[in-house]
């Protein structure tokens, strides 16, 4: 299986949230130089927006040459996350706020040979998670309120990224940090410098004239900062 990310590099994951779904094949081709496709699953309960379910994600998996990074913004994470592993996502990230048994869920996902991620809304502190962070391949720190693309980056999340990276390094763990929301040429370097190594960008890439150019520009800016 293709692996969407690891701790020893910088990875660009375009979000297809604001892509043209009627032309999904072409929209996927535009981002073929990226590392993974970030698919935002929203259930209209955890967030006030509704997007894909497992059968649509399965179709995206079949159409895409890149691995799929599924970001589940769903209330019923414990019971519904497995379905996204079963339809072929390579990484499945659920929100800590939605999971009753996050360690069990991470272990069940990893047993299915997918990478497991845990996500935090901006107002959720990272500290209570640190004792169990080694159960995950990735920590997703939201840099906007989840639900919609095109919002402005929350600068106030930078110290949280820095604290999370310091704690992960101190424990000698191999956990990637993903940032999602408002990531662009203007903000990506500050995220990388703070300790993120996986970067989701939706509007920055899909609104660009040339998505491939935008992906390589973002990658180049991130790579100016060493992985931690
Ligand atoms: C927001 C989603 C993001 C979103 C990012 O809830 O999780 O992945 O699509 O879009 P931009 O990059 O436009 O902020
Ligand atoms: Zn997302």
UniProtKB/TrEMBL annotation:
It catalyses: D-ribulose 5-phosphate = D-xylulose 5-phosphate. It comes from the Bacteria. Substrate binds at residues 15, 71, 147-150, 180-182, 202-203. One of its GO terms (biological process) is pentose-phosphate shunt. Its EC number is 5.1.3.1. Its cofactor is Co(2+); Fe(2+); a divalent metal cation; Mn(2+). It is an enzyme of class 5 (isomerase). InterPro entries: Aldolase_TIM (IPR013785), Ribul_P_3_epim (IPR026019), Ribul_P_3_epim-like (IPR000056), RibuloseP-bd_barrel (IPR011060). Binds 1 divalent metal cation per subunit. GO terms for molecular function: D-ribulose-phosphate 3-epimerase activity; metal ion binding. A divalent metal cation binds at residues 38, 40, 71, 180. The active site is at residues 40, 180. Pathway: Carbohydrate degradation. Keywords: Carbohydrate metabolism, Cobalt, Isomerase, Manganese, Metal-binding, Zinc. Catalyzes the reversible epimerization of D-ribulose 5-phosphate to D-xylulose 5-phosphate. This is Ribulose-phosphate 3-epimerase. It comes from Brachybacterium vulturis. The gene is rpe.
